[in-house]
Amino acid sequence: MREVEAQLTRISDTIAEAVAAVSRDPGASPVLRAVFEELLRKSEATLTCMECDRFCCFRERIVELEQAADSAKAAVIADEGAGEATQERIAAAHDALSELKGVAQRGLRCCEAMEQCCRS
Question: How far is CA 94 from CA 7, 25, 68, 101, in A?
């Protein structure tokens, strides 16, 4: 799980950089900014789950984070005013999250306690 936590921390940093890029991007729409801010909130919530060692919570948060990253990627593509740097930042965060999902699934799949945690 330490590998997953370290990777998630790097992804959260990448997401924070993407939020900063959107905030600085004069062509980015307010809607795009809101989508990126939601992505950052989801990222922070996922890190909180890592800290409390609730694996069932973490698994759900990874799914939510991935969905938010998908929305952010679609939003940046649709926002014609978004700059190239903004587009590159979200693509990097999205791709890193896809890698994390694979690592997390491999690590969590073997955790039988996860099902018990969800029931408690």
Answer: 13, 19, 9, 11
Per-residue pLDDT tens digits of the chain, which is 120 residues long: 677 778 888 888 888 888 898 999 999 999 999 999 999 998 888 888 776 666 667 777 888 888 888 898 899 899 989 999 888 888 888 887 777 776 666 655 544 444 444 444
The CA-to-CA distance between both ends of the chain, in Å, stands at 21
Range of the domain at 109: 2-119
CA dist., res. 31 & res. 115, Å (int): 37
CA-nearest of 99, 116, 89, 83 to 14 is 89
Domain tally, the chain: 1
> In angstroms, rounded to a whole number, what is the distance separating the alpha carbons of residues 15 and 10?
9
Instruction: Give the residue among 102, 105, 100, 107 at the shortest CA–CA distance from 14.
Output: 100
The secondary structure of 92-105 as a DSSP string is: HHHHHHHHHHHHHH
Report the CATH number that the domain containing residue 86 is assigned in CATH. Answer: 1.20.140
